[in-house]
Amino acid sequence: MNKEPKIRPEYIKKAKKIAKQKSIKIRSIKNLRKRYEE
After folding, report:
1. C-alpha neighbours within 13 Å on the C-beta side of residue 37
2. pLDDT at 9
3. What do you get for the CA distance between the two ends of the chain, in Å?
4. How many Cβ atoms from other residues are within 10 Å of residue 29's Cβ?
5. What does the pLDDT read at residue 17?
6. Within-domain flag for 2
7. Which domain holds residue 26?
8. How far apart are CA 33 and CA 27, in angstroms?
9. Which residue would you say has higher pLDDT here, 14 or 37?
10. DSSP state string for 7-28
11. For residue 29, is it within any domain?
12. I need a surface site. Which of 8, 9, 27, 38 has the fewest CB within 10 A?
């Protein structure tokens, strides 16, 4: 039996969406900090 667990494309899409949202949040926080420091 040579069955590899298949990662469903739905999971990949969800993970990518979450990663995008996180990176956008981090970016916006950094931008806000820059504005306050100026």
Report:
1. 6
2. 84
3. 62
4. 10
5. 93
6. no
7. 8-38
8. 10
9. 14
10. PPHHHHHHHHHHHHHHHHHHHH
11. yes
12. 38
pLDDT above 70 (res 2)? no
Return d(Cα 17, Cα 24) in angstroms, integer. 11
Task: Extract the tokens encoding 2.
Answer: 């040579």
What is the distance between the alpha carbons of residues 15 and 31, in angstroms, rounded to a whole number? 24
Task: Read off the pLDDT of each residue in 3-18 and give the average, rounded to a whole number.
Answer: 82
Residue 37 domain-assigned?
yes
Q: Answer yes or no: is 1 within a domain.
A: no
Q: In which residue are the tokens 């039996």 written?
A: 1
